Amino acid sequence: MHSTLFILGTHRTLSVAELFLRYPKGKFIAVGQDWALMDLPIELGQKDLDALGGTIKVATVLEEVTGGNVNNVLASALAQRDTGTKIEYGVSVYGIAERQLRPLLIGLKKTLQKSEIKSRFINNNFQNITAAQYKSIRGKGVEYLVVKEGARHWVAETMGMQDIDAYSKRDYGKPFRDMKMGMLPPKLAQILINLTGVSGTIWDPFCGSGALVMEGLLMGHPMIGSDIHAERVEGAKKNIEWARPEFGIKAKAELLAHDATKSHTLSFDAIAAEADLGMPHSQQIRPDILNKIMSDLDQLYLRFFQNLKAMRCDKPVVIALPFFRHADGREQFMEKTLRSIEDLGFKRTPLLPDILKAEDRLSLRYSRPDQSVGRAVYRFLLS
């Protein structure tokens, strides 16, 4: 087994859920506020990280230190890289106050000097390493992570860093963007796909401009995308055609205009989708109008799941439904819809490992503080 450290994104529980369902053979050892440690049967690298929307860094654990000297572990790891030329490196800490980086880096520098090892740390102002800094030394230098929980420390070597430039290009560089729709962020699209827990064909029945379809193709999934609006399907086709040469996509995609509440003969292994959110994310709305929107959405989602039941769909269904934030801070979820879906025989399955028992394991949230509409993520199976 390979002890692997994941530095998590902003939405912690979504990040952990993604790891839980993407790596079912893995075992969680510990989970901190912004990191998770797993034992995995495989060693991960940059390519694996590129398929994880909720992870910022992935690292291989070199050593667990209990009451020992982290400085010595780092110095020993750097000494093994010594070729007589100056070693470039960075150190980032988690579960430890970032101000502790100054004495750690200075102490490490002195230890290396005593061994006559030339080195230069790249931490600006003694802060954690950024994606841009890591990019500057990738292939010629190294970043180490030091994570602390209680009396235990883990020292790990970074094997991959989130490629923020690629995400930005896919999000803003594609030719078709429908500003009337809620824009599905590429990272969330990846998470939804990984939450299915399958490696085969994914169907997005509300594909819009094709963001989820594109991310699935990049991850190697054959993809099916459909939408009731033909113009959005045509836009999705343009986006996929643009992405193929830009990102070297080889997986196959089928895109078609189709009403998701009607039967079809498509063959797939799982569903991953963001359904209609009903209104712009940043717009506050009167309660009476919101009730009408929620009623309309309830009917749409219920017809969709009724159709899945009629099709005897026994595949995982991962779907993001909206929740609404009122001006006074109250949050309103699609509770009536959830009860109706469960009455049809669809059971919500756990999204989080047992190690996070205190969390709601059946639903996860994705939202920003400035948004009046957020996403609540669920995973269903027909029982």
Kindly describe this structure.
The strands form 2 sheets. Strands 9, 10, 11, 12, 13, 14, 15, 16 and 17 form a 9-stranded mixed beta sheet that branches. An 8-stranded mixed beta sheet has the order 2-3-1-4-8-7-5-6. By secondary structure, it is of the alpha/beta class. The protein contains 11 helices and 17 strands. The chain starts with a strand and ends with a strand. Helix 7 packs across helix 8 (211-218) and helix 10 (287-310) packs parallel to helix 11. The chain has helices at 12-22, 46-49, 70-79, 101-114, 131-137, 164-172, 186-195, 211-218, 230-247, 287-310, 335-343; strands at residues 2-8, 27-31, 35-40, 55-66, 87-94, 119-121, 142-149, 152-161, 202-204, 223-227, 253-257, 270-274, 317-325, 331-332, 346-348, 364-366, 373-382.
